[in-house]
Write a structure and sequence with these properties.
The complex is a heterodimer. Chain A is an alpha/beta fold. Chain A has two domains: about 5-160, Rossmann fold (3-Layer(aba) Sandwich); about 175-295, Rossmann fold (3-Layer(aba) Sandwich), CATH 3.40.50.920. Helices cover about 35% and strands about 20% of the residues of chain A. Chain A has helices at about 5-20, 35-40, 55-65, 75-80, 85-95, 120-125, 140-150, 195-200, 220-225, 245-250, 275-280, 285-295, and strands spanning about 25, 45-50, 70-75, 100-105, 130-135, 155-160, 175-180, 185-190, 205-210, 215, 230-240, 255-265. In chain A, helix 1 (about 5-20) packs parallel to helix 7 (about 140-150) and helix 8 packs across helix 12 (about 285-295). Chain B is of the alpha/beta class. Chain B has one domain: 3-Layer(aba) Sandwich (Rossmann fold), CATH 3.40.50.970. Chain B is about 35% helix and about 15% strand. Chain B has helices at about 5-15, 20, 25-35, 60-70, 110-125, 145-155, 180-185, 195-205; strands at about 50-55, 130-135, 160-165, 190-195, 215-220. A five-stranded parallel β-sheet of chain B has the order 1-2-3-5-4, with helices on both faces. Classes of the chains: A alpha/beta, B alpha/beta.
């Protein structure tokens, strides 16, 4: 049985933590048990600060000021939104590397209500210049992407959701992978949206692209992979249009019509499972298929 | 550290009359810290064994720049360009621009959590000599993020962390008893006259084996 992306992230970080002495782990009560190996191995570099997310990020930045590569982790809205100023000033403006792992993207905590929903986390993180945003779609990608980036001195947000694709695809950060070529349009699926985007377009003549790197989105890779057709549809697991600037810049060399199929920008008050939210918001395979067909006429 | 020399350098930066510069609430604590307490090496600003000083409030940095300049971290010629285009000395200090500045600050309430992080990191690196000293203002303590770190640091047993509160009674909210609050959170706390160099030195050099120390430097509303 495959593991969750959240569990995998903790396992991989523990491996990297134990492999040397350069990684620090700073938690805010969440997932502490998943990081047990790190706490047992060297409690001086693994700290649970309690329920105080801004302090978690500040403490992580303090570790980074001393040369460590800190990994901070909690539930997405409390990391990307509550502690956003600490991420911006303590890490971003100080030009410090760190890995921030948010779990529970979009409606993973759908029954918890608006306080725990986080369709806006990536947009918030993208306000910080230089922020790398990884959106893996499978536990195998979590492992590969963390091993490729933890300790490289860059500031990175890793966005995890409960929903995953059946197979890992992305091998390295920045990759844009061509799943299938077609002539009518380009569909770019982000992270955990790949399998449902593939199902939604199975009988359409479109080029299907995939990336687990939301930022920076390599403009050359996008240009080389996109179909010549004008319609470009981005299937996003977060607020639709979050990646508008990245995608339009990448394809600025051609006449194009851009469409963004993601979480609609309205307050979602309903309590329900992620599946119920996806169905209601047109984000399951059937809904994505309907929306793409409508867009393509 | 010569008081008149700090005042002269601060006045170079701000263009203020010297008697205004001498009233900076942080001036005496900074003079004692950089003159008698902190181990720093301007020739090697990133020396592993140095003490880490974080000006959390970031505001009114003229006195801070003056003591850094006096210690030789950067040339005096920088000071007249304070807050002008192309000069590294801005209204809030930037660690990427100014040697000797450990943390970029200015938004109130960030420095103490950073200091908890550096104190933990020093411990993780087995650097037992250096300490982290964080300076806040009393009004800055209105920011809730400070109280996260004030709650956290004693529970982590950070004997290598010192908080200096420059209490110039600028907080709209009544913080009294400030030393009582810090003590209740687990800090080893002393209140001293903020212009009394001898008392400042004696309290700032103190370290507790497993608790963070706090020094409330009380500044009269009257200029020195």
């Amino acid at each position: 049985m495959s593991t969750t992306m959240r569990r995998q992230a903790a396992d991989t970080v523990c491996d990297l933590f134990m492999a040397g002495d350069g990684v620090a782990v700073v938690l805010s009560e969440i997932s502490v048990e998943y990081f047990a190996r790190a706490f047992a191995h060297d409690p001086r570099r693994a700290v649970n600060v309690g329920i105080m997310e801004p302090a978690m990020v500040g403490v992580a930045a303090g570790f980074a000021m001393e040369g460590f590569h800190p990994v901070a982790h909690t539930i997405s809205p409390f990391l990307a939104e509550r502690a956003l100023e600490q991420v911006k000033l303590d890490l971003g403006n100080q030009e410090l590397g760190a890995t921030l792992i948010g779990t529970g993207g979009s409606f993973d905590y759908g029954v918890e209500g608006t306080t725990h929903h986080s369709p806006g986390d990536v947009q918030a993180m993208l306000t910080i210049p230089g922020m790398r945003v990884l959106v893996p779609g499978h536990a195998g990608e979590v492992d590969r992407l963390l091993r490729a980036t933890v300790g490289d001195g860059q500031l990175t947000y890793v966005r995890l959701q409960a929903v995953t694709n059946a197979q890992p695809v992305a091998a390295v950060p920045g990759e844009v992978v061509t799943i299938r070529a077609g002539g009518q349009a380009t569909v770019l699926a982000i992270g955990p949206m790949l399998d449902r985007a593939a199902a939604a377009t199975a009988d359409l003549d479109v080029t299907l692209l995939y990336t687990a790197t939301a930022a920076p989105l390599d403009p050359a890779a996008l240009r080389e992979s996109a179909a010549a057709a004008a319609d470009v549809i981005v299937v996003e697991p977060f607020h639709q249009g979050t990646l508008a600037a990245q995608v339009t810049a990448g394809l600025a060399d051609r006449p194009a019509r851009f469409h963004f199929v993601g979480v609609p920008r309205r307050l979602v008050r309903e309590y329900g499972t992620p599946e119920q939210h996806d169905a209601a918001l047109g984000l399951d395979a059937a809904g994505i298929g309907r929306r793409i067909r409508d867009l393509l006429g | 550290m010569e008081h008149t020399e700090i005042v002269r350098l601060a006045a170079l930066a701000t263009g203020d009359e010297k008697h205004e510069a001498s009233s900076y609430s942080t001036l005496d604590a900074l003079a004692v810290l950089y003159g008698e307490v902190l181990r720093v090496d301007p020739a090697d600003p990133h020396w592993d064994e140095r003490d880490r000083f974080i000006l959390s409030k970031g505001h009114g940095p003229a006195a801070f720049y003056a003591v850094l300049c006096l210690r030789g971290f950067f040339p005096e010629a920088w000071l007249p360009g304070f807050m002008t285009w192309g000069n590294p000395l801005g209204a809030h200090p930037d660690r990427t621009l100014v040697p000797g500045v450990e943390a970029s600050t200015g938004s109130l309430g960030h420095g103490l959590a950073l200091g908890v992080g550096t104190a933990l990191a020093l411990r993780a690196r087995n650097l037992d000599g250096p300490r982290t000293v964080v300076l806040t203002g009393d009004a800055e303590l209105n920011e809730g993020s400070n109280w996260e770190a004030i709650l956290l640091a004693p529970q982590l047993g950070l004997g290598n962390l010192t908080l200096v509160v420059i209490d110039n009674h600028s907080s709209e909210l009544d913080l009294r008893p400030l030393d009582g609050k810090l003590t209740a959170f687990g800090w080893d706390t002393r209140t001293v006259g903020g212009r009394d160099h001898g008392a400042l030195r004696d309290t700032l050099v103190r370290r507790h084996p497993d608790r963070p120390t706090a020094v409330v430097a009380d500044i009269s509303k009257e200029p020195a």
